[in-house]
Amino acid sequence: MRTSVRHFAVSTGLVALVVTGSAVASMPSVANARPAAASFDGASFDPPTQTLTSTTHKKLRVNFFASIDQNGLGSGFSQAAGFTITRKGVPETHDWTFPMKKAFTFSTKTDKGSIKTKSQLSPYATVNLTFAPNGKKHTSTCGKYKTIRVPVKVKGSLTFDTRSGKHGWGKVHASHLSGKTVIYYETGDQTTCNPGGFTLECGSGISWNASHSIGTTDGDVAFSGSIDTVKGKTVKTFYASRTTTLSKPKGSTRGDTTYVTKSNSTLTIDKANDATLVVKGTGPVTGSVTMASPAAGSASPPQACGKGKHEVFTNWQVTYTNGKSPLAVHEQIEGTYKLPNMGTSDYTNDIDKTVVS
């Protein structure tokens, strides 16, 4: 089971750690732990955003995370680390994810731990952080399930290089990080905790998706968007993503995304229930595309939501045809990307409409 990630409001330079487990009150250090039945599940380390000035004089917003995940019963744990880099006012995000070995340690006996990557994240990053208890534990109980909250103090340093060229976003370094935050870890049988039933919330609107796999090393590209009504106003969004496998460290990836909150998109549904969506570029997005269904949409049976209401989903499988200038995303680093023309059977290209009654 993957570890859940919680965000905590802590001052700049501080970090937050979440540890989850089940069915044992005293868990071993997880650096080389082998899971027994219903034992420690894993941990995730998720600091709040830091704003740092890079070597190319860019103010970058930096998030670092690290995780330990159980591979499977009796098969040990895997570790990963990553960085998310953004700039204020720039609608693009870049994420780097790296595998690690024995870099992340934490003991539920002493509540001490560290993340020391050494050269494992080269040529991109180095991380050297330690944490130790700094106050009394607090335990919350739900059935046989317990969540333990441990105040900790943190210190260390981290460095990250975007490797985006001479005029790119540059390299950041944060030395002498220190502060206070909390560690959470969990034990017991989570299925015994039932705080209440879940009711699906109602939501109406339109969404669309188009994607293409370029290749294992070159990356996958996906475009999507939505047309919703919020407080009586129409809100149109556009989201683009690209995933690329890096040459080193082995097993590492980079994700590039752009999110536009005022997309230029128009959906038309004719009397035959055929759908046509036209998306035109705005901001860092240029060109245009037309997504059209060769057949009528398919409606789902009504699904209960809210208090006595129902949702009905209508789906159209569509073609993807670029305009004279293809719909393309231009980012400040890592270059431009776009999708090719595609038919309904090429990849997952569709339009969905949800109506609440």
How would you portray this structure in words?
The chain has no helices and 27 strands. The protein is an all-beta fold and 357 residues long. The protein has two domains: 176 residues; 152 residues. The protein has a 20-stranded mixed β-sheet that branches. It has a four-stranded antiparallel β-sheet with strand order 17-18-20-24, with no helix packed on it. A hairpin with a 6-residue loop joins strand 4 and strand 5. The N terminus is likely disordered.
Radius of gyration: 24 Å
- Shape type: globular
Task: Report the portion of residues in β strands.
Answer: over 45%
Proportion in helices: under 10%
Residue runs with pLDDT of under 50 for 5 or more positions: 1-39
Number of domains: 2
Structural class of the helices, strands and pairings?
mainly beta
On the 0-100 scale, what is the average pLDDT? 83
User: How many strands in all?
Assistant: 27
Largest sheet: 20 strands, mixed
**Number of helices, counting only DSSP H or I runs of 4 residues or more:** 0
**How are helices and strands ordered from N to C?**
EEEEEEEEEEEEEEEEEEEEEEEEEEE
Head-to-tail CA distance between termini:
37 Å
